[in-house]
Amino acid sequence: MRTPLQTRSESSADRMLAATLALLDEGGPTAVTVAAVARAAGTSNGSLYHRFGDRHGLLLAAQSRVLGTIEAETAQAFAVADTEPDDERAVALLATAAVDLFVRHRGGMRAFLVEVDSPDLEAASTAFTHRLAATVTQWLRGRFGCPTPDAEAAWRLLFALGTSRALFDDEAVSPVPLAPEALAGSLAKAVLAVVRPGSAGGPLRPGPTPA
Q1: Residue 202's CB: how many other CB atoms inside 10 A?
Q2: Are 94 and 153 part of one and the same domain?
Q3: Is there a domain that residue 194 lies in?
Q4: 181 and 78: one domain?
Q5: Where is each HTH tetR-type domain found (predicted)?
Q6: Tens digits of per-residue pLDDT, 121-170?
Q7: Both 46 and 83 in a single domain?
Q8: What's the pTM?
Q9: How crowded is the C-beta side of 172, counted as CA atoms within 13 Å?
Q10: Domain identity same for 44 and 67
C-alpha cells in the first residue's frame, strides 16, 4: 500500500518529467535547466536533485518516458492494423498513426532521437530505434511476404520522415503546405509500393555501369 509521502513524491516526479517534455517542445534541450524545470513543475531545485540526481538523470528519465510512450502507442497502432483485413486500409491506419505520433512527440523525438548529447542518451536512442525497426519490418514481412531489403527500405522511409518532422517545420521543407492527412495517405502509398509484390511494375533492373 502506498503511503501519502510516496504518492506525493511520484506526483512531484511526474510534474517534473511533464515540465521537462514541455520545455523540450518549446525550446529544445537548451531550455531544460534545473531551475526552469523546478519552476515549471512548482517544486524546488533540491527536490529535482533528490529525485533525479542531476540534469542528466532528469533527461534520462524523460527519455525513458517519451520513448516508452512512443513504443506503447506504436504497439497499439499495429494491434489495430492487425484487425483490418484489407492491406491498403491497414497500412493507411499505420501511416496515419505514424504522422500523428511525429506531431505529438516532436520535441521528445528531436531531443532523444536526433540531437542526443551524451553516450547514455544515444545508447538508449539506438536501442529504441532498433526495437521499432524490428516491429515494423517483422510486420511488413509477415503481412506482405516481402524480402528483408524491401521491409528495411520501407522502415527507412518512415524513419527519415520522422526525423525530418522532428527537425523542420513544414514550411521550411517546401513552400507548398501539406496537411497531415494528405501526408499520411501518400506515405501509405509509398510503403505499399515498396513492400507489395508487383507494385510499380516489379523490381527495377540496375542501370548501365558508367564507363
Answers
A1: 8
A2: yes
A3: yes
A4: yes
A5: 10-70
A6: 999 999 999 999 999 999 999 999 999 999 999 999 999 999 999 999 99
A7: no
A8: 0.84
A9: 6
A10: no
Torsion of CA 21, 79, 93, 157, to 10 degrees: 70
Number of independent structural domains in the chain? 2
What's the domain range around 7? Answer: 1-53
CATH number at residue 147: 1.10.357.10
44 within a domain of the structure (yes/no): yes
Residue 148 to residue 206: CA distance in whole angstroms:
19
What is the average per-residue pLDDT within 173-201? Answer: 90
* Under 8 Å between Cβ of 98 and 166: no
The b-or-e profile of 106-139 (16+ CB within 10 A means b, else e) is bbbbbbbbebbeeeebeebbeebeeebbebbbeb
Helix axes 180-195, 119-144, angle to 10 degrees: 60
